[in-house]
């Protein structure tokens, strides 16, 4: 299968994540896109991150009812720091395209065993406000495709701040994610 792998903290998953997943699915002719929340995101050490079980629950809610999108919990259930290279290796038999925002793609050289990872995958890059295409192209050595998706200036950091200030996240996150956040009292 041709799989698009959209990983991240997903704290919370929001509409920009789904817009990018949709663009990758359609433009690359993928069989499916898997959203993979990081279990223990090593690049976020020292930051407050919502527990993995809630980020997983929100990811499942985000893709509910969309047949070609699914959540994948392999990083949530894996103990210790989670590295994309290990996730891709566990997907043997699939052709994998990493789906990254331009900000993440420009930092790929800092990832665990980046050169080895980039030999194993293609990379689809979504534009991000403030991210420089030149820095992406300088960092990425893998086969790269730029996605035609409007840059949506939405971030988990901003959404968590909005929620903490008592502002609604409705319509900035999928309906099921909004309901999950409200039901579990997250980000207050």
Key structural traits:
6-stranded parallel sheet, globular, 6 strands, alpha/beta, about 40% helix, about 15% strand, about 190 residues
Question: What does this molecule look like?
Answer:
The protein has a 6-stranded parallel β-sheet with strand order 3-2-1-4-5-6, with helices on both faces. α2 (52-63) runs antiparallel to α9 (175-184). The mean pLDDT is 94. The protein is 39% helix and 16% strand. With 188 residues, the protein is α/β, with parallel strands linked by helices. The radius of gyration is 16 Å and the shape is globular.
The helix/strand series, from N terminus to C terminus, equals: EHEHEHHEHHEHEHH
Low-pLDDT segments, ≥5 res: none
Q: What is the global morphology?
A: globular
Number of DSSP strand runs: 6
What is the CA-atom radius of gyration, in angstroms?
Answer: 16 Å
Rounded to the nearest angstrom, the distance between the terminal CA atoms is 40 Å
What is the residue-averaged pLDDT?
94
Query: Quick one: biggest sheet?
Result: 6 strands, parallel
Report helical residue fraction.
25-40%
Write a concise synopsis of the structure shown:
This protein is an alpha/beta fold and 188 residues long. It is 39% helix and 16% strand.
């Amino acid at each position: 299968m041709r799989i698009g792998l959209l990983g991240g903290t997903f704290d919370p998953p929001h509409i920009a994540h789904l817009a990018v997943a949709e663009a990758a699915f359609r433009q690359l002719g993928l069989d499916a896109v898997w959203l993979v929340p990081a279990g223990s995101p090593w690049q976020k050490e020292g930051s407050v991150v919502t527990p993995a079980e809630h980020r997983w629950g929100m990811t499942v809610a985000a893709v509910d009812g969309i047949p070609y999108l699914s959540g994948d919990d392999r990083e949530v259930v894996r103990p210790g720091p989670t590295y994309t290279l290990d996730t891709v290796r566990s997907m043997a038999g699939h052709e994998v395209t990493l789906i990254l925002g331009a900000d993440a793609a420009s930092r790929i050289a800092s990832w665990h065993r980046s050169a080895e990872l980039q030999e194993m995958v293609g990379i689809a890059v979504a534009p991000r406000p403030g991210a420089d295409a030149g820095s992406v192209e300088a960092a990425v050595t893998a086969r790269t495709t730029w996605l035609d998706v409007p840059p949506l200036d939405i971030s988990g950091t901003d959404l968590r701040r909005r929620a903490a200030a008592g502002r609604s996240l409705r319509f900035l996150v999928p309906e099921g994610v909004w309901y999950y956040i409200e039901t579990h009292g997250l980000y207050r």
